[in-house]
Amino acid sequence: MENTSFGRRTLLTGSLAAAALVPLASCATGGGTSSGAGSSAAASSADNPFGMASSGTIDAVIFNGGYKTDYVDFAGTQLTKKFPGVTVKVSPSTQIAQELQPRFVGGNPPDIVDNSGAQQIGMSTIVDQLEDLTSVLNANNYEGKKIADSVFASAIKASGTFNGKLAAMNYAMTVYAYWYSASLFKANNWTPPKTWAEALDLGAKAKAAGKYLLLFGKEAATYYLTTLIASAIMEGGDDVRKNFENLKPDCYSQQSVVDSFKGLEAIIKAGYMKPGGSGTQFTAAQSQWSNAQEALLYPSGGWIENEMKSQTKADFQMTGINEFTVTSSPKMPASSLHAEAGEPFIVPSKGKNVAGGKEVLRAMLSKDAATNFASTRLALTVVKGAAPAESAMSTALKSQSDLLSKAGNNTFSWQFISYYGLNKENLVVMNSFLEGQMSADDARKGLQGIVNKAAADTSKPKLQVS
Fold this sequence. Notes:
The relative contact order is 0.21. Helix content is 40%, strand content 12%. The chain is built from 20 helices and eleven strands. The protein is of the alpha/beta class. The chain folds into two domains: 198 residues, D-Maltodextrin-Binding Protein, domain 2 (3-Layer(aba) Sandwich), CATH 3.40.190.10; 205 residues, Periplasmic binding protein-like II (D-Maltodextrin-Binding Protein, domain 2), CATH 3.40.190.10. The N terminus is likely disordered. Strands 1, 2, 3, 6, 7, 8, 9, 10 and 11 form a nine-stranded mixed β-sheet that branches. Strands 4-5 form a two-stranded antiparallel sheet.
């Protein structure tokens, strides 16, 4: 399970005020470039652009989700080959906010954090306590090439820039899609749906075959909110996205949002959503799809193949398709894609080894580390040309590459859920809706209430998206 905030593509304008939480703001610092307290800085050079000390430990806390954490271990190994006196300590976590907020308050955060997962820290609360990572883009990678020239820099800046400050370096090039078994569909002569109406028709065929169309797990119920928002943006155009980003009081009442929710509600009412998901752990639910094949489709980011590779039926041929639209002629092209640079890595300014945190990023953004990630995690990174050869790609990885290619410049995403930390409250509403305990209208009202609460909270600086 990866970042359930789902979306940080838009560049922001305006000015950021102080951090939202007063206790956290009390330990904020500016965006310095020193090695940090407790480490003896070295002179900056082409081989050591951040002036990292020649010995010591880099404290890395990495979200232990669908991508696991050993890809950072690999990058750490590459780093220690160049700096033999340095150790990279990788600590896996699934409770980023719970474990790290006290460390931010105490002034002893890690040197680098993968701020991902359902329990990520809302960026509005810590953004002024993080390093500006522009210096990482300006540095050379381990192959001697400027990082800004070797990555999808525009995607990185768009997803990690908060009112002019590159506060997060997103690493994975995440594609959001509906996933299915190509072998199962071929055996039953089923066609992947493009609209909610086509999905409803497929649900009837699934039921006739003794299967469900969809299923869900309690921690990942907001995967369906993600696909509903994407559907609404594709159907109604970019203004739909902007209204969400700007916390408009009627953002969940936009017509394309209403229609998308009604599309999913029809599937739930018809009995095509497997019941009981609100009491099922999300990977157990996903296994019911990928291994037992109790359902035909599942919405997720591109991490799903790696997350479920030990629980996927042989010859499953996992393949992704675009998220559904309401009509066959949406405002955005049908090939439009919810895609973003994801897995946000942050470097706290109060870390003991700030330079070491940046050096870990430099190692990760080198081609060897990026190729290792793509080959072992079965997902793309922001590093150009680091994917395995097409002949070596899995069906899921190839479909991600194909979807990105077809979308071209028509990709989109959003920030408001992750920025304001709304996922936890959204989960309550979405579990009830998917379980059939709440109507689509009531679900939208509940979600709008969460947005309105965030809009009324004057302690948090607001995104300004135009």
